Amino acid sequence: MNRSRLTGELVMVVTILLMGSSYPFAKEVLATMSPLLYSGSRYLIAGLFLFVVLAVMRQPIALPRRDWLPIVVLSVVGVAAFQAFWGLGMSRTAPSIGSIVMTTTTAFSAILAWLGGRKLPALGWLGIAVAFGGVVMVVNNSLAHWTLALGTIDGALFWALSAFTWALYVDRCAPYNARLGTLRIFAWTTVIGAVLLTLFSLCFDSLGEFGRLSGRQLGYWLYTATFPVGVAFLGLTIGFERLGVPRVMVYMYFIPVAGVGLSAAFFGDPLTPARVLGGLIVLLGVILTRVALDRRARLL
User: Fold this and answer.
1) How far apart (Å, rounded) are the C-alpha atoms in residues 111 and 124?
2) What is this structure's pTM?
3) Using an 8 Å Cβ cutoff, are 286 and 103 in contact?
4) Are the CB atoms for 185 and 101 separated by under 8 Å?
5) 270: left (phi over 0), alpha (psi -120 to 50) or beta
6) Half-sphere CA count of 147, side-chain side, radius 13 A
7) 27, 185, 206, 209: most buried, per Cβ within 10 A?
8) How far apart are CA 61 and CA 56, in angstroms?
9) Whole-angstrom Cα distance, residue 47 to residue 229?
10) Does residue 144 register a pLDDT over 80?
């Protein structure tokens, strides 16, 4: 293995741990801060961090005039809406549920591909069905009784909407990433989406919420703004460049493992049999869907 590839592998290991860690740390901050203000403000810090990285690396920052409108739309979908649903889901469920449901992004990507006219093999549809079946088991959180009710599924629905908007963002970003660079697109969409979400949140929330955070919570807020988003996005760009998209997607399967493990180890999030089994079923469905998508791509 050459040095460039080895560096890419190590960067992706750290990136997945950082992305998984956002779930338990965010839950602690949301005990005091409203979800929309939390999500918008931390992404604003992350976006500014990415612009600093662009400047340090002496990469182009400005966007061509013709790309401003689509980038704003991508910012609304991929950051403002995505993070709004993410925060609302986190405020209503255990961190482990969110980290598991978010893996259905691959299933939504496959559905978007099908809606775009790309044929999806039977294996892909099987994977989608298996993944969402696993989500039902995770949310039900019991192997013996049916516990689902409106009060228990609203958080999961927010997570599913978050996964869908992220899948839509990734799908529509592809041509802009290829032409303008992934890091530049990440930076602009993160800042624009964060500004819009923060301004929207201030219609309901107050900046005074920062004053109510404990020192530990403020540290968690700053950590989740800088590392699981800003540093992790930088890690993803390095992974894409050195390993390619298929290899990076394999690493993405381990985000729920990191999220669930860290939530249980440091924050006491219970690991019930239903949640563990359901998570494994979701992971199986996602892998089947990914295999189907890769096979279809090779045939094109």
Assistant:
1) 9
2) 0.86
3) yes
4) no
5) beta
6) 12
7) 185
8) 11
9) 9
10) no
